[in-house]
Amino acid sequence: MSVLAPAAAALALTLPVIVALYFLRIRRPTRVVPALHLWPDQIRDRQANVPWQKLRFSWLLLLQLLVAAFLVAAAVQPALSASVAFAPHSIVLLDASASMQARDVQPSRFDEARRQVGAMIDQLAPQDRMTLIVLQSTPRIAGSATGDHDALHRALDGINPTNGPADLTAALSLAAGIVRAGDDARAYLYSDGIVEPVRATFADGLPFPVEYHRIGLSGENVALTSLVVRTNAQSRAAYLRVQNFGQQARSFSLEWRSDAGLIDVRPMTLAAGQAQDVTLPVPAAATTVTAHVTAGDIFSLDDSVTAIARVPRAFRVLLVTPGNVFLEQALRLRTDFQVDVVAPAAYVGASAYAMTVFDRFSPPALPDSPFIMLDPPAGSPLAGGAAIGIGRVRGSDAGDPLLANVSLQDVHVARSQDLNASTFGRTLITSVQTPLILVREEPFRQVLVGFDIHESDFPLRIGFPILVQNLSEWMLPPSVPSRSFHPDEAVTIVPETGATSVTVIRPDGSRRALATGSVATFGDTDLIGVYTVDQTLSGSTDRSWFAVNLFSETTSQLKPAAQLTLPPTRNAAAAPSTHRGFIQVWPWIALLALVLVIAEWLAFHRGL
Amino acid sequence: MATPLLEPSLLRRLEALAVLVRRAVKGQMGGERRSVSRGRSPEFADFRNYTPGDDYRLIDWNAYARLDKFVLRLFVAEEELPLSMFVDLSGSMDWGRPNKALTAKRLAGAIAYVALAALDRVRLTVFADGPTSGGVPYRGRHSAQALFARIESFPVGGPTDYSRLVWPISRQRSGMTILITDGLGESALEPAITALQLARQEGAVLQMLAPQELQPDWTGDARLRDAETGAEREFTSTPATERAYRTALARRTGEIEEAARRRGLQFALLTSDQPIEDMVQRTLRRIGLLG
Fold first, then answer.
1. Nearest to A532 by CA among A506, A564, A512
2. Which residue in A212, A262, A298, A469 has a CA-CA distance of 20 to 30 Å to A584?
3. Residue A557 belongs to some domain of the structure
4. In the predicted structure, residue B180 carries a pLDDT above the cut 60
C-alpha cells in the first residue's frame, strides 16, 4: 500500500476541528414556546455547547468524524501495488488490425486488448508517462507521452479496429522515434501476433524492450480467400477459394449471389486445414457477384467476398509490324484489347487507337497517344546508335512495378541498338553494354525497345507476355480498376477525359469527391465491400466499380502467435528501471464516505 | 378609541342563539330555563298526592271529582341558568398569532353575551396559577359591557395550576360551566374536569391553540423558553423532534378530550385564527353547546 498524495494528509486537521465544533457554543435564537415540556429532549448531540464540557457520545459526531477520516484517506490517494511493471515511459502498441475483430474472446480480441490497456492506464503512477500507438496498416500515435489518465482513456476510447493489416515494423519505428536519448522506456504490445513480418530495419536494435501480451485463443475459422471473375470467348465464370484454417472439420453453406439476387446455395464440408476451389457461374448481366459462407465462426470479415463481374471497356490497339507473332499473341492476352494488325506500308495513322505498337517501323509522325516502339529503323527520330552485341540482361531496378513478376533470368539478347546516348527516358531493362528498354511518361506514356525481339530468346520466356501486360496496363490504365483490393490499399483512378466530377461511393454510402484533372489516388478503402465510382461526362453519369476484400490468408488463419520474433533491444543489459503500477482505491473510499454522509443525514433526521 | 371586545354587529347576531342545557336547572331567580323546582308557569309538569301543608290552591278539583282524593297539579318552574366560565389567562395563553388569550377573552365574551341575552346568570372566573373571580354574577343584556370590560382588564401571565380550580368549581351550584384553556400547563387538567362532574355541571371544555402550535413554523437550533415558567432549554429541531412534539401535543389534546367526554362534557379544539363567529356559529353549535 502506498500513498500518492501524502501532502493531503494535512487535511486530517479537519478531524480535531470537527470535535472542536462540538465544544463551541452555538448562537441559538430564543424561541418562546407555550409548553416546553411537550418538546422532546433532543439536544444530546449538541448539548456539549458549554466550552470544555466533557464530550458526550454522539452518533452524529462519530459519523462526521468517520466521513472526514474517509475523505482524508481518499485525498491522500492510497494505492495498492499492481501486477504490471511500469517503466517511467510506457509505450503501448494496441493492435487494431483486422484479425483483432475475431470473437474467440468476448466481445472481441480488440475490446479485450482495449480493456487491458484501460486497466494499465488506471494503474499508471502519477510520475509515469504513457504513449499510445495504434498498430494498423499505417500506425499512428493516439496519445502522446502523458500521465493524464483521462486524456489516455479518451484516446483509448477513440481507437477502433480496422480491416487492414498490422505493420509492426512501422509501429516499432514510430515508437523508437519518440523515445529520446536517455528515456527509460518499455513497450507493451497488445496483439494476437498476426502482424506483417518485421522487416530488418533495426540494425542497432530497439531502444526499449518489448513485452508481448497475447490476445486471443483460437484459430477456428473458415475463410474465402480469393474470388476472381474470368471471361473468355465462351463463357464467364468465377473462381472462389474456400479454406478451413481451423483444427476441426466444418460444414457450412456457401451462398452465391449476384447484384440481381441469389444464384446458388451449396452445402460444403471442409476438413481441418483443407482448401477447396469452387467454380461458379456468372450471369451475363451481373455487375457484382458475392460469395458468403455461414460457418458461424469467430471471424466475419472473410465470410463474404465480392468481385466485379462487369466486362471492362475495350481498348483499340494497333500493331504495325512486318510480322511478329510473339508480340501479337502477347497483346491479345488482354481481354479488353481489340488488336488490329497492319503492315508498315498500310499504316495511315493511329488517331483511332488508344495505343500503337510499332515493330521495326517508325512513322513519319509519331502519334499523339501512347505507343511502343521496337527496334526503330536507323535514321528515325528514336533510333539509337549502331547495333552492338549484348549478353545477359537485367532490370535496372528490381523493385520497379513494371517488372513485377518478370523474370529476366536466362534471357539473352543477341544485338541491340546502342541507347547509351538516348534521352528518351528512364531505363527499365539494361545490359552491361547499353540500356535495352526505356520508358517515359511525358507527354504520354511511351516505351522504346532497342532490339528486335526476334534476336532474343525473351519471347520464349514466361516473362515476355507478363512484361507486355505490365507495360500495356501502365500505358492504358483502366479508368477504374475493376479488380479486388485489400483494405487500406490505394486505388488509382484515372478520370475519363472530359469528366466534370468524380465521386467514390463507399460501401457505407459515404461519398468522396476526387479531383478530375489528374490521376487520383483513392486511399479511403478501409471498408470491405463494393465501391462505386461515378464520373459525370457531358451530363451523363459513367458508373464503374471496384471491390475491397480481406483476401489475406495471414489474417484469416487467426491463430494467435505464442511468441513474436522481435528486434533485439539495444543495450539489452541495461534494462529500464521498472516499478509496479498502482491500483488506486480512493474512489472506493470516497464512495464509502458518501455512504456515511447519507447515514449521517439519516441519523440526523431520525434524531439519533 | 379602543377596539371593542366584540363588534356590535356580531352581538346582534349572537342574540339569536342560546346556551343549550340538557338537564333542568336550579337557579336563584326566575328565568327562561326549566327548573328542577315546581313552580308557577303555564307548563304542566306532574301530579302528586296531597299532603297536609301543601298549597291547597294547587289541588286539582276535577281529579278529586273523579278519584275522590286530593291530587296536586304540579307545574314547571322557569328559572335562570347559572353559567360559569373559567378562562385560562396563563402565560402559555399569551402566545400565538393571533394571541390565544385575546381570542379566549373574545370567545368567553361571546358565549357570555349569548347567556346574558337569555336572562341567564353568568359568573366569570379567570385563572392561571390560581383562580381570580370576575366579581358578582352578571345577569341581563345590560351587564354585558361591564362583563366585557372586566374580561379585558385581566392581565395575562403566570403558570397554570389546574388543581387550584377544583375548589371554586366544586362549590358551584348545579348548572353549566365552560372551561376555555389551551390545556398545556404542566399540571394535569383532569382534576378540574372531575370536579365539574362532581359538581353536577353540564358544560364544555374548549381547548384553544394557536396555529403555530399545531404546525411549528421554525426549524434548526434554538433556545426554547417556556412561556409560563421561563425555563430554557437548548434545542435542535429536526424532522424527528418535530414529529415527537406533534405526537406529544396530540396525546395531550386526546387526554383532555377523553377526560371531558368520559365525564359528560363537550369538547372542542379551537384555533386562535378561527373567527369568533365561526367558532360560535359552527363549532359550538356542532357540539351542542349553543343552539
1. A506
2. A212
3. no
4. yes
Task: Specify the pairing of strand A426-431 against strand A435-440.
Answer: antiparallel
Tell whether A50 lies on the interface with B, counting CB pairs under 8 A.
Answer: no
- pLDDT by residue (tens digit) across B12-36? 888 888 888 766 555 444 444 444 4
User: What is the count of structural domains for chain A?
Assistant: 5
Tell me the β-bridge partners of A514: A502
Query: What is the C-alpha to C-alpha distance for residues A484 and B38, in angstroms, rounded to an integer?
Result: 130
**CATH code of A279's domain:** 2.60.40.10
Q: Are residues A467 and A416 in the same domain?
A: yes
Name the residue with cell 465544544: A23
Cell 486497466 maps to which residue? Answer: A119
The per-residue pLDDT for B236 is 81
Q: Is the domain of A57 the same as that of A100?
A: no
Q: Cβ–Cβ of A34/B222 closer than 8 Å?
A: no
What CATH number is attached to the domain comprising A525? 2.60.40
Chain A CB contacts of B186 below 8 Å: 35, 37
Based on the fold, state whether residues A304 and A242 are members of the same structural domain: yes
Q: Identify the bridge partners of residue A448 per DSSP, sorted by sequence position.
A: A373, A438
Q: Which helix (H) or strand (E) holds A511?
A: strand A511-514
Q: Which residue segment(s) compose the domain that A506 sits in?
A: 484-548
Judged by DSSP in three states, A87 sits in coil
Query: Considering only CA atoms, which of B24, B3, B8 is closest in space to residue B202?
Result: B24
- ipTM value, please give it: 0.80
- Is position A578 within any domain? no
Residues A141 and A198 in one domain: yes
Tell me which residues of chain A have a pLDDT lower than 50: 44-48
Asked if A437 and A448 count as a contact pair (C-beta separation under 8 A), the reply is yes
Q: Do A396 and A373 share a structural domain?
A: yes
Indicate whether A448 and A517 sit together in one domain. Answer: no
Name the closest residue on chain B to residue A49, using Cα atoms.
B234
> If interface means Cβ-Cβ distance under 8 Å, which residues of chain B face chain A?
91-93, 95-96, 100, 182, 184-186, 210, 213, 218, 221-229, 231-236, 238-241, 244-245, 248-249, 252
Q: Which chain B positions have a beta carbon within 8 Å of A37's beta carbon?
A: 186, 226
Q: What percent of chain A shows pLDDT beyond 70? A: 92
Residue A604's SS3 state is helix
Which residues in chain B are contacts of A38 at CB distance < 8 A? 184, 245, 248-249, 252
Domains along the sequence of chain B with CATH: 8-25+81-286 (3.40.50.410), 37-79 (no CATH)
The residue out of A453, A475, A497 marking a domain boundary is A475
Distance from C-alpha of A350 to C-alpha of A368, rounded to nearest angstrom: 8
Mean pLDDT computed over B180-203: 87
Tell me the C-alpha distance between B50 and B41, whole Å. Answer: 20
Q: How far apart are the C-alpha atoms of B118 and B115, rounded to whole Å? A: 5
Q: Which of residues 19-48 of A touch B (CB under 8 A)?
A: 26, 28-43, 45-47
B85 and B109 Cβ atoms separated by less than 8 Å: no
Indicate whether A331 and A396 sit together in one domain.
Answer: yes
Q: From residue A579, how far is each of A94, A209, A576 by CA, in Å?
A: 22, 15, 10
Distant-in-sequence, close-in-space partners of A408: CB < 8 Å, separation ≥ 6: A393, A394, A395, A429, A463
Nearest to B221 among A28, A32, A40 (CB): A28
The set of residues, in sequence order, having a beta carbon less than 8 Å from that of A262 and lying 6+ positions away, is A255, A256
pLDDT band at B291 (very low <50, low <70, confident <90, very high): confident
Q: How far apart are CA B282 and CA B95, in angstroms?
A: 24
Residue A558 CB neighbour total at 10 angstroms: 26
Q: What is the DSSP string of B63-83?
A: HHHHHSS-EEEEEEEEE--EE
Whole-structure pTM value: 0.53
CA dihedral B143, B147, B153, B155 (to 10 degrees): 170
Q: Which pLDDT value is given to residue B39?
A: 47
Residue A420 and residue A361 in one domain = yes
